[in-house]
Design brief:
Largest sheet: 6 strands, antiparallel, barrel
Shape: rod-shaped
Strand order of the largest sheet: 1-2-3-6-5-4
Strand content: 25-35%
Order of helices and strands: HEEEEEEHHHH
């Protein structure tokens, strides 16, 4: 039985040369036993065969360990450990790029902080009429008077419709 195939099942191409390796996807590590030191540096793109597909891995860090394999499940004495990032998968990974901003204190009304938020403002009819009555906006006053004269609106607002109309 070929233990190297079980211990190092992945095929990785570095600088045009194929090596057997084992990748830990969760930790972003790739272990490669070697005899002749692979020509690899931080920033290099290496290729891992995955079935009929190829996965591009960007090298983020390297560690060459002489006699590091202890020749367990391999005939190669040394061990290369690479920290890699799967750049083939990167466009498909959803990330939250919203920065965290700390704000000491905020005073005021109707304040919104953040992205993609909604703001709901509740104002009662009395406040609406009072604000429009204080304004110099004759068009808003006219529209509001027409609204308060409407039978449907008057029935919803009730007896206060007359009092509200009087404020205008």
């Amino acid at each position: 039985m070929d233990f190297e195939k079980l211990a190092y099942p992945e095929i990785v191409t570095i600088a045009g040369i194929e090596y057997k390796g084992k990748r830990n996807m969760l930790k972003g590590q790739l272990f490669i036993p070697y005899t002749k030191e692979p020509d690899v540096s931080i920033g290099d793109i290496i290729i891992q065969k995955s079935g009929k597909r190829k996965i591009q891995l960007k090298v983020l860090d390297t560690s060459f360990l002489k006699d590091g394999s202890l020749e367990v499940s391999t005939n190669h004495p040394h061990k290369l450990t690479l920290i890699v990032e799967n750049i083939t998968a990167k466009p498909h990974i959803v990330t939250n790029n919203n920065p965290s901003i700390s704000i000491g204190s905020i005073n005021g009304e109707q304040i919104q902080v953040g992205n993609d938020n909604s703001q709901i403002v509740n104002i009662n009819m009395q406040q609406l009429v009072e604000h429009i009555a204080k304004s110099n906006d004759d068009e808003a006053k006219s529209i509001l008077k027409s609204l308060l004269k409407n039978n449907t609106v008057a029935s919803l607002v009730g007896a206060s419709a007359t009092a509200l109309f009087g404020l205008l």
